[in-house]
Design brief:
It catalyses: pyruvate + phosphate + ATP = phosphoenolpyruvate + AMP + diphosphate + H(+). There is one protein chain. The chain has 36 helices and 31 strands. The strands form six sheets. It has an eight-stranded mixed β-sheet. An eight-stranded parallel β-barrel has the order 24-25-26-27-28-29-30-31, surrounded by six helices. The radius of gyration is 32 Å and the shape is elongated. By secondary structure, the chain is an alpha/beta fold.
Length: 897
Amino acid sequence: MVRYVYEFAEGGREMAGLLGGKGANLAEMTRMGLPVPPGFTVTTEACRAFLTSGSAPDGLDREISEHLSALERAAGRRLGEPADPLLLSVRSGGRFSMPGMMETILDVGLNDESVLGLAKVSGNERFAWDSYRRLLQMFGSTVMGVDGALFDDVMARLKERRGAADDLGLDAADLAELVEAYKELIRDRTGEYFPQSPAEQLRRAVLAVFESWNGERARIYRRREHIPDDLGTAVTVQTMVFGNLGADSGSGVAFTRDPATGRPGLYGDYLPNAQGEDVVAGIRNTVPLDELGRIDAESFSRLRDLMRTLETHYRDLCDIEFTIERGTLWMLQTRVGKRTAEAAFAIAGQLVEEGLISEDEALARVGGSGLARLMFPRFDTSAVGEALAHGIPASPGAAVGAAVFDSAEAVRRAAAGEKVVLVRQETTPDDLPGMVAAQAVLTSRGGKTSHAAVVARGMGKVCVCGAEEIAVDPHGRRFTVGGTTVEEGTVISVDGSEGAVYPGAVPLADSAVMRYFETGGQDEESAGLVATVGRAMRQADGVRRLGVRANADTPEDAARARRFGAEGIGLCRTEHMFLGDRRQLVEAMILAGTDAAREQALDALLPLQRQDFVGILEAMDGLPVTIRLLDPPLHEFLPDRTELAVRLAAAEAQGSPPSAHDAELLDAVNRMHEENPMLGLRGVRLGLVAPGLVAMQVRAIAEAVVERKRAGGDPRAEIMVPLVDTVEELRIVREEVEQVLAEVADRSGVALSCPVGTMIELPRAALTAGRIAEEARFFSFGTNDLTQTTWGFSRDDVEAAFFSAYLDKGIFTVSPFETIDREGVGRLVEIAVAEGRAVRPDLKIGVCGEHGGDPESVHFFHAAGLDYVSCSPFRVPVARLEAGRAALSGTDGGDTR
């Protein structure tokens, strides 16, 4: 029989898949003997069963009732009893942290009778009514579907009438009045009364948390973080402890190290006389955690000891929620904390130095996506004036955009291609779409543990919180600071590393990490972030099996790629060498009416191509350079069809004689026109029907190799034939290639060895890889085209047309052009690797689509047995790091979440 409920004492952190992260860690702290309010967890299996059937699974109500009875016996109180009520919190907790994305209901068990008993037993009437109004607001919005903003409006009107700056300015009578207003609001909006039965409150609260797994903001967050939709959430039911009992009580969130920078020390926020939700919601400005040492030295000392215990136990940065109830410290949650990319590298390095983890573990805790963010430019503030405002640097980086004041406007402008900064007093979970769309988030309230800070760090978004100088007017769509007013649409710059906001667009400068890679790792400092990154890169290079090459078409790109650590070129696209002034020579080749004219045009192109190859081979001396023969259809090198027709028509309308050259070009364009040129005359097909083209390119490669060898170099050119569908195509081209190589070798007296291979970029090639391997010395997967042809997608068309809808509907969790589609395209890769190596065991296999630089895809290519990945030069460090992580994990997992 399936079991759906576990007491905290029965679990542990290894059960996060069943108990969710929150439930598993509460169980772990309970087993460690930490002061955790007792409770139980309803499993993710129960959630999945509920979401499948639409009703609570059989036996769940009974199990909850049994565990509630045990909790009541241990507490000596019953849920919601009038004289001395036991109250409960009901919280979500998925396998992966999703801060603020699902629901929480506090103070479950209060009703019109038990609120009076709570007031009497606590000796604090205001506290009792404050707790009841919280339950009504959370239950009314989460369970009964009332718009949460309506509760805020009622509160705001009451505060205005009383002249109260915040909720602490309301007394017990005010809060009792607020309770009645909230109950009336619920009744008006739903047609039903707030349930007075504590058992009904608990049951409906649990089911509402289940339902919140499929709420809009939860689904958006999962898509953004690539969290599977089928995991479900657990629900923790826990005895309430109260931080809103007065000045000797409060709630806080703490980190064992700074989650923004990684610096050691205690970081966090504390809010006296408040429940936990107040801290992350930013409704009142918190005080720094150190201030707790002055407010309550004993609790602060105890908290500091427990934080040290937890960090040592988890061997990582811990994110902790706690409440102090009349001087007694309670631990409400811990988890391995979200952190910025900078903090991830810094903390991993520190923990190695402290002997808590190994170098391999440190490498496993950083990721390529984070490394890429560290390579982004930072602001160059040397030439700008004073900042508009300063706040808390919650998530580092530099971002420029137009100020917007609500989530919908951020989404609208971003969809139109505009970069925006979302400015709010504080964010709520409902702001998630705007946070995803924005370049940065700026709030006037909250600290490093506020909703905006936590979510922004998790997403790698720039964020400045608690900029108290800024007065945000969301209705007027502006903010003011000092004598300056910033209207919506005004460009501002947000520096999440320094916590500063500047007017206009501040210029950017390379990051220190980028400078490190630009200098080939020679610019490493003795300490700091750059040194930590350097150590991670050395560790990755020491353990990785996958080689890392670059896609580069010029000597400059090749040299940069080598500085970035590339071990060769996996894709040199020769068509890029035919652009600019050389288009005229290509036009001459296309328009040639005789063999002699065509040869003349090819002869003119040959020395230009040769010199290109000489420069690239020199930059990559001693390393392999895979040169792809011409791939795109020839019409791409001709003027636009419509443009030519318009020029000719305009000349005719003006009575001028039409240009004979334009007419000839238009005739050629019409002759070559294809309805779908990407599936037409291109790649190997072009080489087979355009006489002399393959020979010219191969001769240029061969002569470049000869020139480099005579100069004392070690050129290692490889020739790759694109878009092969059948082994016969490759055989014919390979024979022509080898004939040209032999001719150049005989004429120059220099031995040449340029292996010939092919791109696997069509499903048929992957499925017949065993045959193709008979003629190929190497394979390189062109995963961009392989994805297009496997899915039947034209990338340029479909991404804008319907990919967003596919993501919204959950058909995709990520674009297949961004991360390899393992089930389809990945399966073709695996078949081709297995069949190719069965025929030629020493077959060298790589990938040269941009998937080669995607962190998750790199793990797949490692598991699939490829020899190397190739990507753009700037992604080479990312691929190196992820190749190392893939070797350590021994799995096909991806970047750290």
